[in-house]
Amino acid sequence: VDLTYFNLAQVRENGSIPVQFVQGSVYYYCALLHGAFRIFGNHPEVGIRLQIVLQIISSLFLYLGVRKLSGKICAMLVLLFMCFSRTAMDAGLSYSPQMLYLCMFGLVFWLCADYLARSDKEEIHPVAMWLYTIFLGILIGFLGYVDVSGVILFLLLVCMEWVNRGVGKTSFWFLRYVVIVAVAVLFFWGMVFADAVLSGTGFVRVLNAWFMTYGASPVDFKTFIAQREFLWLPAFASIGIFSFWRRKGEERFSPYVMPLLGMAVLMFCGITVENMPGTYLFYILMAALGSVALTELFYKAPVVVTEESTENVTDEIDLDIFDEKMEMIDLEKKDM
User: Fold this and answer.
1) Could you state, in chain order, the average pLDDT of each consecutive group of 10 residues for the chain (336 residues)?
2) CA-CA distance, 101 to 123, in Å (whole number)?
3) Radius of gyration of the chain from Cα atoms?
4) Are 44 and 1 within 8 A, CB to CB?
5) Which of 5, 65, 126, 200 is at a distance of 20 to 30 A from 170, taking alpha carbons?
6) How far apart are CA 148 and CA 155, in angstroms?
7) What is the CB-side half-sphere exposure of residue 255 using CA atoms within 13 A?
8) How far is CA 25 from CA 28, 100, 105, 139, in A?
């Protein structure tokens, strides 16, 4: 077990809080570890138990989000992946800020899924929906400040029009999307300003440090390809090639395809950092996409009952009754 974060966060004699980090995910993780060590003591197993708790919480949030978007069966398949895959086990038993960030991401993902589900319901008060829109922008802005992978949730919300057919006629979905992006950007700048004030450094210096941390760099595929999930998850997700056409006039793949493509761009351009490579999040999104593809393979379109079909059925029933009566009359005549 790598004890780098343990050494950074453990409680010392002066009781100082961990030093400031440019990367928000590392700072918040070390602060959380520091608080746990203050309560339970400087023991390595305390951090591992904290990782397990964070993994359970993040699994619950992602389960609720996938369930809101795609149903119980897809959510259960994703939950099984997060509990029993080798990547999940390794992430849950090692010191890493990934699990804390996944909790934050899972919570905002769930709220985004809930927002998509509510965006086409006219019974919700418009003021409440706009407040929800602003709140969601604040959360995504904070998530993007903590780690750059939070921006892929913008791509999830792009699917607002595709998930709910006709929502553009009733909900001004494009205007809401612009508001979410604007609020997120403003809140990101606000977080940078707060960081500069609290750390005693200049605003431009903090901003440059953030962009230097998440700047593009040469791609290293070793971490990505080394995972066992690299062998079977793409094949699992490719089931969607055959099940994509099962529904007509409805689309259920984009809420996972768009964030997955965004995460792939961040990873393959080297924008993610070494301690937050995004591999685990990428595999979770791919598992969700494969789950949707698998369940869509067994989808059966509901039978639409029209007036013409009911008239035909009643006509057929009347003819059958008439034939039965005629047969009974013929039998009676023969008996006579």
Assistant:
1) 76 62 79 88 88 92 92 91 82 86 94 84 78 94 91 85 50 80 94 85 84 75 61 72 62 83 85 81 87 78 54 49 59 58
2) 34
3) 27
4) yes
5) 65
6) 13
7) 27
8) 5, 8, 11, 15
